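Input record (Table S2, row 236):
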Amino acid sequence: MADLSAFPITSRWPAKNPDIIQLYSLQTPNGVKISVALEELALPYEPHYVSFATTDQKTAEFVSLNPNGRIPAIIDPNGPDGKPIGLFESGAILLYLAEKTGKLIPADAAGRYETIQWVFFQMAGIGPMFGQFGHFYKFAADKVANNSYPVERYRDEAKRLLSVLESRLKGRQWIMGDEYTIADITTFPWIRGADIFYGGREVLDYAKFPAVMDWLQRCIARPASEKGLNIPVKPA
Ligand SMILES: N[C@@H](CCC(=O)N[C@@H](CS)C(=O)NCC(=O)O)C(=O)O
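Output record (glutathione complex):
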Protein backbone atom coordinates (compact mmCIF):
# COMPACT_ATOMS: atom_id res chain seq x y z
CA MET A 1 0.00 0.00 0.00
CA ALA A 2 1.35 3.45 -0.95
CA ASP A 3 2.51 5.68 1.91
CA LEU A 4 1.19 9.22 1.44
CA SER A 5 2.12 10.43 4.94
CA ALA A 6 4.66 12.84 3.43
CA PHE A 7 1.67 14.83 2.09
CA PRO A 8 0.08 16.76 5.00
CA ILE A 9 -3.10 17.25 2.94
CA THR A 10 -3.90 13.58 3.61
CA SER A 11 -4.29 14.31 7.31
CA ARG A 12 -7.29 16.57 6.59
CA TRP A 13 -8.59 14.54 3.64
CA PRO A 14 -7.56 10.93 4.48
CA ALA A 15 -7.09 8.55 1.56
CA LYS A 16 -9.37 5.52 1.75
CA ASN A 17 -7.33 3.91 -0.99
CA PRO A 18 -3.83 5.47 -1.09
CA ASP A 19 -2.89 3.34 -4.11
CA ILE A 20 -5.04 5.39 -6.48
CA ILE A 21 -4.93 9.05 -7.59
CA GLN A 22 -6.20 11.46 -4.95
CA LEU A 23 -8.14 14.44 -6.37
CA TYR A 24 -8.81 17.58 -4.31
CA SER A 25 -11.43 19.59 -6.12
CA LEU A 26 -14.86 21.17 -6.43
CA GLN A 27 -17.39 21.35 -9.32
CA THR A 28 -15.97 24.59 -10.78
CA PRO A 29 -14.70 25.13 -14.36
CA ASN A 30 -11.09 24.44 -13.32
CA GLY A 31 -12.00 21.65 -10.91
CA VAL A 32 -14.11 19.55 -13.26
CA LYS A 33 -11.41 19.51 -15.95
CA ILE A 34 -9.59 16.90 -13.89
CA SER A 35 -12.58 14.71 -13.00
CA VAL A 36 -13.62 14.84 -16.69
CA ALA A 37 -10.12 13.74 -17.79
CA LEU A 38 -9.94 10.99 -15.16
CA GLU A 39 -13.36 9.67 -16.20
CA GLU A 40 -12.41 9.79 -19.89
CA LEU A 41 -9.19 7.91 -19.09
CA ALA A 42 -11.04 5.44 -16.85
CA LEU A 43 -8.29 5.82 -14.26
CA PRO A 44 -9.20 4.86 -10.69
CA TYR A 45 -9.22 7.89 -8.38
CA GLU A 46 -10.56 9.11 -5.07
CA PRO A 47 -12.23 12.55 -5.18
CA HIS A 48 -12.07 14.80 -2.10
CA TYR A 49 -14.48 17.71 -1.69
CA VAL A 50 -12.73 21.04 -0.97
CA SER A 51 -15.36 23.41 0.38
CA PHE A 52 -15.05 27.10 -0.49
CA ALA A 53 -17.82 27.77 2.06
CA THR A 54 -15.33 26.92 4.81
CA THR A 55 -12.28 28.18 2.82
CA ASP A 56 -10.74 24.71 2.86
CA GLN A 57 -8.48 25.78 -0.02
CA LYS A 58 -6.58 28.20 2.27
CA THR A 59 -5.95 25.73 5.11
CA ALA A 60 -2.37 24.76 5.94
CA GLU A 61 -3.05 21.19 4.83
CA PHE A 62 -4.34 22.24 1.41
CA VAL A 63 -1.65 24.88 0.88
CA SER A 64 0.98 22.23 1.63
CA LEU A 65 0.01 20.67 -1.71
CA ASN A 66 -0.86 23.86 -3.59
CA PRO A 67 0.86 26.99 -2.24
CA ASN A 68 -1.48 28.99 -4.48
CA GLY A 69 -4.47 27.92 -2.36
CA ARG A 70 -6.71 26.96 -5.27
CA ILE A 71 -8.34 23.83 -6.62
CA PRO A 72 -7.70 21.47 -8.36
CA ALA A 73 -4.71 19.50 -7.05
CA ILE A 74 -3.81 15.82 -7.14
CA ILE A 75 -1.48 13.26 -5.66
CA ASP A 76 -0.57 10.32 -7.86
CA PRO A 77 0.93 7.58 -5.65
CA ASN A 78 2.39 6.02 -8.79
CA GLY A 79 4.20 9.00 -10.33
CA PRO A 80 7.46 9.16 -12.30
CA ASP A 81 9.89 6.38 -11.28
CA GLY A 82 7.01 4.79 -9.35
CA LYS A 83 7.21 7.49 -6.64
CA PRO A 84 4.29 9.62 -5.39
CA ILE A 85 3.94 13.05 -7.00
CA GLY A 86 1.77 16.02 -6.01
CA LEU A 87 0.61 18.49 -8.66
CA PHE A 88 -1.44 21.67 -8.92
CA GLU A 89 -2.49 23.92 -11.87
CA SER A 90 -5.18 22.26 -13.98
CA GLY A 91 -3.23 22.57 -17.26
CA ALA A 92 -0.17 20.87 -15.75
CA ILE A 93 -2.34 18.11 -14.27
CA LEU A 94 -4.07 17.50 -17.61
CA LEU A 95 -0.75 17.30 -19.42
CA TYR A 96 0.60 14.95 -16.75
CA LEU A 97 -2.40 12.60 -17.05
CA ALA A 98 -2.26 12.66 -20.86
CA GLU A 99 1.46 11.85 -20.90
CA LYS A 100 1.11 9.20 -18.20
CA THR A 101 -1.49 7.32 -20.24
CA GLY A 102 -0.57 8.31 -23.81
CA LYS A 103 -4.22 9.28 -24.29
CA LEU A 104 -6.16 12.55 -24.86
CA ILE A 105 -3.12 13.95 -26.71
CA PRO A 106 -1.88 13.11 -30.21
CA ALA A 107 1.12 10.77 -30.37
CA ASP A 108 2.97 12.78 -33.04
CA ALA A 109 5.17 15.68 -31.89
CA ALA A 110 3.52 18.37 -34.03
CA GLY A 111 0.02 17.36 -32.90
CA ARG A 112 1.21 17.21 -29.32
CA TYR A 113 2.56 20.78 -29.40
CA GLU A 114 -0.53 22.03 -31.20
CA THR A 115 -2.66 20.56 -28.42
CA ILE A 116 -0.47 22.14 -25.74
CA GLN A 117 -0.80 25.46 -27.58
CA TRP A 118 -4.61 25.30 -27.27
CA VAL A 119 -4.33 24.25 -23.63
CA PHE A 120 -2.23 27.37 -22.98
CA PHE A 121 -4.76 29.46 -24.94
CA GLN A 122 -7.39 28.40 -22.42
CA MET A 123 -5.16 28.65 -19.36
CA ALA A 124 -3.78 32.10 -20.18
CA GLY A 125 -6.76 33.53 -22.08
CA ILE A 126 -10.22 32.02 -21.67
CA GLY A 127 -9.87 31.09 -17.97
CA PRO A 128 -8.56 34.42 -16.64
CA MET A 129 -10.71 36.63 -18.92
CA PHE A 130 -13.96 34.68 -18.42
CA GLY A 131 -13.17 34.55 -14.70
CA GLN A 132 -12.82 38.34 -14.47
CA PHE A 133 -15.96 38.77 -16.55
CA GLY A 134 -17.87 36.57 -14.11
CA HIS A 135 -16.45 38.45 -11.16
CA PHE A 136 -17.59 41.88 -12.30
CA TYR A 137 -20.77 40.81 -14.11
CA LYS A 138 -22.12 38.50 -11.40
CA PHE A 139 -20.26 38.30 -8.12
CA ALA A 140 -19.10 41.93 -7.64
CA ALA A 141 -21.83 43.62 -9.71
CA ASP A 142 -22.74 45.88 -6.78
CA LYS A 143 -19.15 47.19 -6.56
CA VAL A 144 -19.12 48.36 -10.19
CA ALA A 145 -22.72 49.57 -10.39
CA ASN A 146 -21.46 53.09 -11.21
CA ASN A 147 -18.70 52.05 -13.59
CA SER A 148 -19.48 49.95 -16.65
CA TYR A 149 -15.83 49.71 -17.74
CA PRO A 150 -14.79 46.46 -15.96
CA VAL A 151 -17.76 44.46 -17.32
CA GLU A 152 -17.31 45.91 -20.83
CA ARG A 153 -13.58 45.25 -20.82
CA TYR A 154 -13.87 41.55 -19.85
CA ARG A 155 -17.09 40.96 -21.81
CA ASP A 156 -15.43 42.19 -25.00
CA GLU A 157 -12.28 40.20 -24.37
CA ALA A 158 -14.34 37.05 -23.64
CA LYS A 159 -16.27 37.59 -26.90
CA ARG A 160 -13.05 38.09 -28.82
CA LEU A 161 -11.70 34.80 -27.42
CA LEU A 162 -14.98 33.08 -28.35
CA SER A 163 -14.53 34.28 -31.92
CA VAL A 164 -11.03 32.74 -32.00
CA LEU A 165 -12.49 29.46 -30.76
CA GLU A 166 -15.34 29.73 -33.28
CA SER A 167 -12.86 30.00 -36.18
CA ARG A 168 -10.90 27.04 -34.87
CA LEU A 169 -13.98 24.83 -34.45
CA LYS A 170 -15.63 25.64 -37.79
CA GLY A 171 -15.43 22.40 -39.77
CA ARG A 172 -13.81 20.49 -36.88
CA GLN A 173 -15.45 18.04 -34.50
CA TRP A 174 -12.97 18.75 -31.71
CA ILE A 175 -10.31 21.43 -31.20
CA MET A 176 -7.71 19.02 -32.60
CA GLY A 177 -9.98 17.73 -35.37
CA ASP A 178 -10.94 14.06 -35.07
CA GLU A 179 -9.37 13.48 -31.67
CA TYR A 180 -10.92 14.53 -28.35
CA THR A 181 -8.02 15.90 -26.31
CA ILE A 182 -7.05 17.80 -23.19
CA ALA A 183 -7.53 20.98 -25.27
CA ASP A 184 -11.28 20.28 -25.34
CA ILE A 185 -11.34 19.18 -21.71
CA THR A 186 -9.63 22.32 -20.46
CA THR A 187 -11.88 24.62 -22.50
CA PHE A 188 -15.48 23.38 -22.54
CA PRO A 189 -16.10 23.66 -18.76
CA TRP A 190 -15.36 27.41 -19.05
CA ILE A 191 -17.79 27.97 -21.93
CA ARG A 192 -20.42 25.99 -20.02
CA GLY A 193 -19.56 27.75 -16.75
CA ALA A 194 -19.95 31.29 -18.08
CA ASP A 195 -23.52 30.33 -18.91
CA ILE A 196 -24.57 28.28 -15.88
CA PHE A 197 -22.55 30.04 -13.15
CA TYR A 198 -22.52 33.65 -14.45
CA GLY A 199 -25.71 33.75 -16.54
CA GLY A 200 -23.59 35.22 -19.34
CA ARG A 201 -25.14 33.46 -22.38
CA GLU A 202 -26.92 36.56 -23.75
CA VAL A 203 -24.39 39.23 -22.84
CA LEU A 204 -21.58 37.12 -24.33
CA ASP A 205 -23.63 36.60 -27.53
CA TYR A 206 -23.40 32.80 -27.41
CA ALA A 207 -25.88 32.54 -30.31
CA LYS A 208 -23.28 34.20 -32.56
CA PHE A 209 -20.85 31.30 -32.03
CA PRO A 210 -22.70 28.26 -33.49
CA ALA A 211 -19.59 26.09 -33.96
CA VAL A 212 -18.65 26.64 -30.30
CA MET A 213 -22.21 25.88 -29.17
CA ASP A 214 -22.40 22.64 -31.21
CA TRP A 215 -18.98 21.53 -29.93
CA LEU A 216 -20.01 22.28 -26.34
CA GLN A 217 -23.03 20.00 -26.77
CA ARG A 218 -20.80 17.27 -28.22
CA CYS A 219 -18.44 17.55 -25.23
CA ILE A 220 -21.26 17.36 -22.69
CA ALA A 221 -22.88 14.45 -24.57
CA ARG A 222 -19.84 12.24 -23.92
CA PRO A 223 -20.93 10.00 -21.00
CA ALA A 224 -17.52 10.11 -19.25
CA SER A 225 -17.23 13.89 -19.59
CA GLU A 226 -20.78 14.40 -18.40
CA LYS A 227 -20.05 12.20 -15.39
CA GLY A 228 -16.89 14.15 -14.53
CA LEU A 229 -18.84 17.42 -14.44
CA ASN A 230 -20.65 16.18 -11.31
CA ILE A 231 -17.55 15.23 -9.29
CA PRO A 232 -16.70 15.65 -6.46
CA VAL A 233 -20.02 15.34 -4.71
CA LYS A 234 -20.60 17.36 -1.53
CA PRO A 235 -20.38 15.00 1.45
CA ALA A 236 -23.72 14.40 3.21
N1 LIG B 1 -4.74 28.47 -12.90
C1 LIG B 1 -5.37 27.69 -11.86
C2 LIG B 1 -6.60 28.40 -11.39
C3 LIG B 1 -7.28 27.66 -10.25
C4 LIG B 1 -8.46 28.45 -9.73
O1 LIG B 1 -8.59 29.67 -9.92
N2 LIG B 1 -9.37 27.75 -9.04
C5 LIG B 1 -10.49 28.40 -8.46
C6 LIG B 1 -11.77 27.60 -8.75
S1 LIG B 1 -12.16 27.56 -10.47
C7 LIG B 1 -10.32 28.47 -6.95
O2 LIG B 1 -9.78 27.56 -6.35
N3 LIG B 1 -10.81 29.56 -6.32
C8 LIG B 1 -10.79 29.68 -4.90
C9 LIG B 1 -9.97 30.86 -4.43
O3 LIG B 1 -9.52 31.64 -5.26
O4 LIG B 1 -9.82 30.98 -3.21
C10 LIG B 1 -5.72 26.30 -12.41
O5 LIG B 1 -6.07 26.23 -13.59
O6 LIG B 1 -5.62 25.30 -11.69
